[in-house]
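Task 17 of the worksheet. Students: predict the tertiary structure of the chain below and write it out as structure tokens. Keep your answer in the requested format; marks are given for formatting as well as content.
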Amino acid sequence: MLLSIAADERAALQLDDLASSLDAGLSVTALGGDAAAGERVVHGVLQRRGIKLSKTEDAVLAAGWRAGRVGAALRSRADERRQRAQFARKIWEGLRYPLFLLVLVLFMSLLLSAVFGTAFLGLGVGVLFVVIAVAVVVVRRGFEHGGEAWIRLPVIGRLAQELSELPYLETLQSLYAAGVPLVQAHATAVATVPVASVRRRLQVTQRIVADGRSLAEALGQSLALHPETRTLLATGEKAGQLEDALQKALVRRRDVVGRGIANTARWTGIVAYGTGVLFAVVFIFTAMQPIFRLYSSGR
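Model answer:
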């Protein structure tokens, strides 16, 4: 996660620098671009600078070049990268303490088992961590390929569902703001959704939008997004301000998801702390048993 934060911040600097260079009148060829690449010329410049573009960024920059607004497209992607880094930093702040406690419990259990010969304790903690790791893999695959039951899981199901809205809203807002027609922008946005059940609902939305009906009507029929998001988009679409409504919905969902993850991490930290206390009690009891036996035999 720390690597992704650093990568996003570095990408934001490069995107802003390229936009500034183009606004100053420098040609893309002078910046290392290949004029023969057409609408993907800025992609090549960024690739040479070591920036890996997402599917959303790839589409937005191509659309910005076609519309003659590549500078604005670059700056919008830089802003989005900074917001993404800020969001990831907020998640990391919530997760680092419980992760530290869990790793500390594992390390201490292995160390003390080696020193005092209480192998069952280290083995027990190791098995617990293996179970947790397997559960994480199974749940992740369930979200990526499973049905509706996965998003009904307590706490993590709701978080996964709301997290899956973020790339959809980001992509749809970016492409729509770059002048891509709604139907085409929506199809690209749906493909970025990582949770299978949410993606299937949005595919229903895509078919309805492709039939010429409004986005608000399509979302209301498919029930694909959070009710707050549907309300914001419906209001914005009726007022002719869908682009602004998409941005507001994205900011709102990021805020809600960030607080949800922080709260979940807080409870995870409490559980990890309780696990550590339990581990300490078991270890002390185990280590003191020889002393108890010696004391009993002396009596």
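Marker's comment: DSSP finds eleven helices and no strands in the chain. The chain has a mean pLDDT of 81.
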